[in-house]
Amino acid sequence: MSIVEAAPYDFELAAPRAAMLIIDMQRDFLEPGGFGDALGNDVSLLRKTIAPTRRLLDAARRAGLTIIHTREGHRPDLSDLPPAKKARGRFATGIGDAGPMGRILVRGEPGHDIIPELYPLPGEPVIDKPGKGAFHATDLDAILKNLGITQLIVCGVTTEVCVNTSVREANDRGYRCVVLADCCASYFPEFHEMGLAMIKAQGAIFGWVSDSKAAIDALTSGKRKLASV
Length: 229
Ligand code: C5J
Fold this sequence. Notes:
The chain has nine helices and ten strands. It is of the alpha/beta class. The longest helix is centred in the last third of the chain and has 16 residues, at 189-204. It starts with a strand and ends in a 10-residue tail after the last helix. The model has no long low-confidence stretch (mean pLDDT 95). Dicarbonimidic diamide is lined by residues 24, 29, 72, 132, 157-158, 161-162.
């Protein structure tokens, strides 16, 4: 057992039962010319997460942690895209339409793929999710249960949308989640702060909040604890 210094109190990490969950670090959200950029967002706010997430990913891979990536997107025929989601925002260019990096949030298109800096290694599961939550209409829960995973170290974008939704879903399914503040981001910095505050409020009502350094310390030479969780 290792200790991850976290708020509202230390997170007791059991590495053999922990997975790193990297949410939606896709070109459509993080790169100029993607879906996020087309909506008028400043993607540099999200790109700040790449370096710390990469450092943690390297440490997690060295420690033999299970690594799971997610991508938000839809089938090319859009049969899994609810009309309500397609219509939301009344955007001139929306999900399924042609964008600078191919059809927006459509599986198989360049913009839908994970950014090269964090690209999955062969064997690391990639969960294609049609919704904001990583558990909705996916096999993530089955994969985690079959691997004996009970704890999630969560990174990704955006803090208040897909990260928050996924952490709430995970919490309801009995997983302990620690969300790393510098490995998550929002196009709206105040939503990032509030998204994290909501997770750790009321004695970790949905989970814990920490950072990449504390997680890397725990995975390498971190403080040890003898008790079991
Ligand atoms: C959004 C996400 N914000 N990955 N997706 O539409 O947070």
